[in-house]
Amino acid sequence: MRTHDESGGGFAHWLGLYAALAAMALYNLLPFFWMVSSSFKTDIEVTSFPATILPQSFTVDAYARIWGQEGLVRYFLNSLQVSGATALLSATIGVFCAYGFSRFRFRGRDTMMVMFLASQVIPGVLLVGPYFKMMSFAGLYNTHLGLILAQTTLTLPFSVWMLKGYIDSVPLEIDQAAEIDGASRLQCLWHCILPNILPGLVATMVFAFLLAWGDLLWALCLISEPSKQTMTLGITNLVGQFRVLWSDIMAATVIGCAIPAGAYVFLQRYLVKSSAGSAVKG
């Protein structure tokens, strides 16, 4: 039987734990709350001091102005095209690379995996100059294809590492049984491996999609034509030389967050399965 002191200590432990989690949740959610709240404020209220937490004069004028702008829908579709293609290309190439690293033994295998991982510690700003020169030389500057290829090279190394971990969790005996039945390596990958790593594959695609969707640096350096700009780059156009339209910026940011938030909601069960599978493997 637990004593009074033990039960009190356990209660204090859980109370402190939940208090810490609540503080972390507040810290992470407060910027999003402030963004949504500011998007419904008037231009005067959003810059007033002291600041108001909730809109005193609720208005959707910022959304009306943003949605009425000619370029918003085009920026949105451009981001959707670039991010979707980056996620698909990164996952497609990544699954073949990961399968090779997981199932084959060859000289330099470990060294190449380390190089894949080491490439992630290189600051992206250092690669802008070389990428700009290469894209210009190949005639891909100011094209969505050039931006997609640049984004894919950034997301691919981590995608390979993620997918290799999931493929490693699939028993090798499954491949061997399929090969005995006459299946080729490609058929083993398609029919045996992919169904077992589907949650991990979805998680990898979501990672690549979100990274490409939130990118500003590469879009700023590789895209100059207004009609080809992405959502993040289009939002920066709202920052004027003498005036910053904060309510419009917040409204555009809320609209830009709709796709990532929707992707997480609809693919949540795959992400949970992916996390659970990696936890069990570990």
Describe this structure in words.
By secondary structure, this protein is mainly alpha-helical. It has one domain (72-281): MetI-like fold, CATH 1.10.3720.10. It contains 14 helices and no strands. It has helices at residues 4-39, 61-68, 72-103, 109-118, 128-137, 144-168, 172-180, 185-193, 198-213, 217-222, 231-236, 246-256, 258-266, 268-281. The two termini are 35 Å apart. The model is unreliable at 276-282 (pLDDT under 50).
Uncertain stretches of 5 or more adjacent residues = 276-282
Q: What is the rounded Rg?
A: 24 Å
Measured by DSSP, the beta-strand proportion falls in under 5%
Largest sheet: none
CATH class: Mainly Alpha
Q: How much helical structure, as a percent, in the residues?
A: over 70%
Average predicted confidence as pLDDT: 83
Shape from CA axes?
globular
Secondary-structure element order, N to C: HHHHHHHHHHHHHH
Structural domains: how many: 1
Please name the fourth-level CATH homologous superfamily.
Answer: MetI-like
Structural class: mainly alpha
* H/I helix tally: 14
Q: The CATH topology, please?
A: MetI-like fold
CATH architecture, by name, is Orthogonal Bundle
Distance between the termini: 35 Å
